[in-house]
Design brief:
The structure is a homodimer. By secondary structure, chain A is α+β, with helices and mostly antiparallel strands. Chain A is built from ten helices and ten strands. In chain A, helix 4 packs across helix 6 and helix 5 packs across helix 9.
């Protein structure tokens, strides 16, 4: 990347650097003013692994940001800023940079997050976008994966398996996701579920207030439930019929049965929140979710023991090992 | 990368996560306890751009960390932690992961920096390592590039052009860097200058106390001086003969003359500190550098106007444009 292109990048991204600590993107560092706890997360996305080479570049920028925002939401934290590391392929047209910056700007304005700084470099390889996001906890504690206790209930936001359905719609015959669902929501919207995760930003205060253990779902509901179970030294029992599915998801399970459900819960890239809470918070969580206009579902229980089991009415529990926990594009 | 390999990585890196906020690398986020200013920087290095595919993998880990530490030093900040984003090629042997972790561990222990967390993903492309580092300012203010004032003096730490000499020794006939120098320091050590930058960690308190403007040198002395000049709205005049060179650097200039010096000041990857300070601090800076065992040189002056000029005794100023500011491997 030439010096001129670096200057172009600075010009494109400077409008996103709305906080004083960003120093107008003209310095080597950002300076955060902090008092108390600061939640920090970093997630990278790679072309050919987490997104497709021909995904619109503005959606790539948004995905890179949102996969980090989902971590903050799941910790009950309010985003306060982000660093962008942009590893740009030599062979990718630099005019796409403007669209990348536009996409990032739209999301940063939507979620009120300033750009604090970052790094830009060229690569002979695939486009890689790494974002580090900062948040301030809204509660006294920051729920970890290790805080689940037997007797608690297990909750999840949004709809599970949407990203997998979107990816299937992109990669395979569109009718794999069910003609009914396609008629209802349109193929474009289904694809968007893959390209642009929708972390439940408005739900962070609810998690801060009521969650014991919490994580975002990046590797699939089953794998991330297993992360909580393992870190907390408990078992998690999920009722398959309680897992929230969109109409497209229901159509997929109707078509493929238990195997279809197992794919949806191991597909990954949901970027929803998975958390546990004491049973007495049940009513408050439902009321708060309604007020925040976030879909939330009670899907199971924390039990003594270990592991994750997803039961299905009138059938054997799902065989999760048959699908692996990470069968996304490249890994 | 398989789930097993992710577990391997966690096992390898967990010993580096010595602070409570890292949550044993078992959570989605890190939690920093902060009060007041926090200095944040992020720099990525890419195989084939910032390092060579056959560089020893432990030196790649160290370089990734050190290019970030140089930013903290140049801001007068003490490192308190780092996040690692490791984008690992599908085709690179996973047994190299252990050597990468060992290299990172050696440096994190050497510089007393805990690993706070990070992200790991596979890539079909080149190895890419992105680190975000956190520091606490040792002084009242965090010197930026924009704080230089006419009348101040310009200082630089270490020796300039060492990385370029190391890269030349790796890529070209070794005698390009001068037979005398090779005899004196050994080819291995010269190559190390390229592979492992040596930011002047012990010098951070001196910069915190005396520097007005400050930056690390990543794009070359000339380009980074131009960054300060541009951001501060001043000119910088550097005396070529005052630029600190190692014996190998002197040999290179003896062989190639002004052209050789121009290459050394535009070669980049020095990761030393370049700063300005009021003339009355001159004696204190020299004394503090001696106490910290850091090489520091007074190389020029901040003047009214703009731009960077490097004068040479008995000759025209260096023609910096002839070499460009970023002629490293891939950009």
């Amino acid at each position: 990347m030439s010096a001129d292109e670096f200057d172009t990048i600075r010009t494109l991204f400077a409008p996103l650097a709305t906080s004083a600590g960003a120093r107008g993107l003209l310095d080597d560092v950002a300076v955060l003013e902090a008092s108390g706890k600061l939640v920090v997360t970093t997630d990278a996305i790679v072309e050919g692994v987490h997104f497709l080479a021909d995904d619109p570049i503005d959606t790539v920028a948004k995905k890179a940001l949102r996969v980090n925002l989902s971590d903050l939401v799941a910790k009950g934290a309010r985003p306060i800023g982000a660093l962008l590391t942009l590893v740009w392929p030599d062979r990718r047209a630099s005019r796409e940079l403007a669209d990348f910056a536009r996409g990032l700007r739209e999301d940063m304005e939507l979620f009120s997050i300033p750009l604090l700084g970052g790094d830009t470099t060229s690569t002979p390889g695939p486009l890689t976008v790494s974002i580090t996001a900062f948040g301030v906890p809204l509660g006294e504690r920051v729920p970890s994966r290790a805080d689940a206790k037997a007797g608690e209930q297990v909750w999840v936001t949004g709809f599970i398996g949407q990203a997998l359905l979107g990816l299937r719609a992109l990669q395979e015959a569109p009718d794999v996701i069910g003609a009914n669902a396609r008629d209802r929501v349109g193929a474009e919207e289904i694809v968007d579920w893959y390209r642009m995760p929708r972390p439940p930003i408005g739900f962070a205060p609810v998690i801060a207030r009521y969650a014991s253990a919490s994580t975002d779902i990046s590797d699939g509901l089953a794998a991330d439930a297993a992360n909580i179970a393992g870190a907390s030294g408990v078992g998690i029992r999920i009722h398959g019929e309680a897992i929230p599915l969109s109409s497209a998801g229901h159509a997929y399970v109707s078509k493929f049965g238990a195997r279809g459900l197992a794919e949806l819960v191991t597909g990954g890239d949901d970027y929803q929140a998975l958390f546990t809470a004491a049973p007495e918070h049940r009513g408050a969580i439902i009321a708060a979710a309604r007020a925040a206009d976030v879909n939330v579902a009670l899907i199971g229980d924390v039990v003594e023991g270990g592991g994750v089991e997803i039961s299905v009415v009138d059938g054997a529990p799902l065989d999760l090992n048959a699908f692996g926990h990470r069968h996304k594009l490249g890994r």
